[in-house]
Amino acid sequence: MTLPSFLRLICLAAIWGGSFLFMRIAAPTFGPAYLIEFRVSFAALALLVTALYLKRSLHFRAHARHYLILGLLNTALPFVLFAYAAQTLTVSTLAILNATAAIWGALIAFFWHRTPLSVKSLIGMVLGICGVIILVGWDQTLVSEALIWPVLAGVLAAVSYGVASNYAKNAPQIAAFDNAHGSMWAAVVWLVPLLPFIPMRAVPDSTEISAVIALGVICTGIAYLLYFRLISDVGAASALSVTFLIPLFGIVWGYQVLDEQVGINTLGGMILVLAGTMLVTGFSPATWQTKRAARAR
Length: 297
Fold this sequence. Notes:
It is a multi-pass membrane protein. With 297 residues, this protein is an all-alpha fold.
């Protein structure tokens, strides 16, 4: 991996870790439906501008069914669930729950595609589940009936990402940029019916409005472009390593900006979740270094 690619990886992890910070700031006022409708709308517009610049046609109608499925499973549903959870949970907790997506993806692949589970994968799943339990079970502020639903929403959001990744295995072969662009517009459509039933809670201030704009343009639109560039430069396997950096930035942003306390349960839960994710995905620093050296030759 070249220095520019490495810097893009760090930048992407910082941006995606920051997405949970921006949701935490804006969700209590905007509510989950309006927050995510604004997020995907800004992202869709940013990707539209990019598509016009690159002279790329989306052909939405030709692949409408695919974009609608992907927009629901990979964008609208998990985004809304995380936004609901962000009204209560800390930035670090949200980021760590997000990292379990690969674990759920492997479990779903076992039932959906009959993909065998290795011993390492099974151990990884157990570690990941234990990590989530430690993350929320040792913190007395989380052990309450009122906060069970936000935690469950965060887990279900990660499950939705796992379902989306399995759907993509048999989905139409469409360019990654077009998938992102089309799924954002599909998410805009999916979220419209929710708006009358989940209204905004108050009039947002300038900080909350800025957070929503950053969430859509930077954390979604620009982040997708960075991610696709990474896949093009270093391959999907190396780009996956961003998954292990996002919780670190989530913890840093929550501590620095919102003064969220980082307890032993947060660090312990994060270590177990990331270790479990590495085992499930087969990713390891040694393997990554070997592939990197081979690519350099």
